[in-house]
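Troubleshooting log. The previous structure file for this entry was overwritten by mistake, so regenerating from the original sequence record. Sequence copied from the archived sheet and checked twice against the printout by T.R.
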Amino acid sequence: MGNKGISKELIKHWYYKMLLIRRFEEMINEKFLAGDIPGFVHLYIGEEATGVGVCSTLRKSDYITSTHRGHGHTIAKGADVKRCMAELYGKRTGYCKGKGGSMHIADFGIGMLGANGVVGGGFNLAVGAALAIQLRKNDDGVAVCFFGDGASNRGTFHEGLNMASVWNLPVIFVCENNQWASTTPLHEATAVTDISVRSISYAMPSEMVDGNDVFAVYEAAVKAVDRARRGEGPTLIECKTYRVKGHFVGDPEQYRTREEVMAQMESNDPLKKFLERVLGENLLDEIQLKEIEEQVAVDIEEAVKFAEESPFPKPEEAFEDLYVEEVMSHA
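Regenerated output below.
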């Protein structure tokens, strides 16, 4: 792929977002191990190019559904890292007022319909969002469903892709094939090597790309999003990537070797690939990259400070936001 149609500002945006996600996740790892963050945490390190490449093609009003590994998608779609950090800390200023934690961050204001603790839980939510877009008639929005290779073996994958194709919905299914479904390698649980071939069953176009190359992900996403906006229906994109960290923070990772992980990071790190290309092709210079790195450092520091200084929810707030308090009449 060339660089036609890709502005310097977009390339800067990619680096800022990918680095912001990486530093956010590294900080979460550190704070969780220090005992500052409760619950379970699943990190997105090594997969940043997929979320950023796809979300950079979307409008604020477009929808995404995420997974239990959802921080990267959330930040890529435009969420405030301060409120994300506060939510992980269990603080009142978080997106779910500290009650949802890592696996339940959502911001409907930017079209982020939620991270999801249920594997395969996002397919039918994204299909529903796409159906709502279609029913509005004059709306050319799209919905994107992020999911992993493990989720492609769940029933909701097949239900979701089938209905999206039957109804010709404006939805893009993005498989982040990171080679691991929890502790199970892809080849032990999936009959096909490439998830993208499954689109044939649903008369749906598909594309397989290097999920660690933000340029390649962006190119595939642009085509799929444009196709959906034109009313031509859904697309399946498979992004080949790798889950660098364990299934969760604290995972002993007895199912793979450290040498395997190090080799992947050496040859397949999305940030390293990005820097090699932009510097090699003079798309950005060292000064511009440094400015972005300094901004990310400030943003992460401020997010931690915001989270640490924010209050916890009061005990009585546990019963808030459970029910709709007022139902509008449609008479």
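The longest strand covers residues 171-177. Archived copy saved in two places this time.
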